[in-house]
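Hey L., structure's done. Input below.
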Amino acid sequence: MSDNFSDEAHLLLALKLFEQRRISSGKAGRLCGMGRVEFLLTASRAGVPVIDLKGEDLAKEFA
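Output:
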């Protein structure tokens, strides 16, 4: 059980630090034992925004 708890704690910490823009997605993935893409997919499923487009950048993306 402690391994599962530890894994979950690492994931939650990585998600929070990534959400606060304190670490990159790559570092967050390494923190919880995942690759960058796997972490981004997990973050998205957990409701953590994985992109931050605003204003003009958002308009360009959907033009």
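Helices lie at 2-19, 25-31, 36-45, 55-61. The chain is about 65% helix and 0% strand.

-- N.
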